[in-house]
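Is this the right way to post structure tokens for a design question? Let me know if I should format differently. Anyway, here goes:
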């Protein structure tokens, strides 16, 4: 019957439409890093001279006034400042920053920060990462902890989310 193939064809088109919609959610920004605010936030200037504030996905680095805050900023600066990067992203945070994976010559800057012991794998948002990234970031943090690199050399490293909460409680953040 001529009408029978229509259902499988409709299903195939539906699947393709869903896949296309998912792909459409991902976006890219390419440009030069013109500022590094801290260990997980930078500014990219694109070819159209538009600036984009970028929050590295999957990590949380110490705040500037926190132990290892300056080291985290210096680490991200050394890796990215003045360099051309590609940012793959699909969301903005509550401050309007793009949240994405920053690639510097193919190196994931967030993963590099975690490997160096300059940031935590931000497990609270791990579900937003691909399985491959989740696993890589978790392993990088475990390795940095085991090797006592960076902030893991501290006897009791304080996660930035705890530090921010404590700072808000005493009114210093």
């Amino acid at each position: 019957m001529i009408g029978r193939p229509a259902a499988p064809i409709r299903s195939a088109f539906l699947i393709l439409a869903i896949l296309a919609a998912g792909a459409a959610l991902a976006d890219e920004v390419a440009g030069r890093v013109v500022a590094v605010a801290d260990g997980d936030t930078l500014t990219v200037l694109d070819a159209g001279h538009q600036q984009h504030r970028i929050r590295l996905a999957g990590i949380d680095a110490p705040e500037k006034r926190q132990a290892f805050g300056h080291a985290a900023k210096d680490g991200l600066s050394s890796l990215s400042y003045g360099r051309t990067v590609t940012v793959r992203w699909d969301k903005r945070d509550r401050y309007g920053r793009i949240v994405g994976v920053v690639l510097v010559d193919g190196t994931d800057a967030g993963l590099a920060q975690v490997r160096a012991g300059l940031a935590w794998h931000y497990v609270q948002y791990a579900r937003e990462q691909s399985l491959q990234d989740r696993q890589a970031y978790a392993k990088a943090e475990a390795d940095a902890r085991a090797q006592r690199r960076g902030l893991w050399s501290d006897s009791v490293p304080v996660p930035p989310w705890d530090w921010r909460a404590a700072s808000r409680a005493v009114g210093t953040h």
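Format looks fine. Someone answered above. Worth noting: The radius of gyration is 20 Å. DSSP finds five helices and eight strands in the chain.
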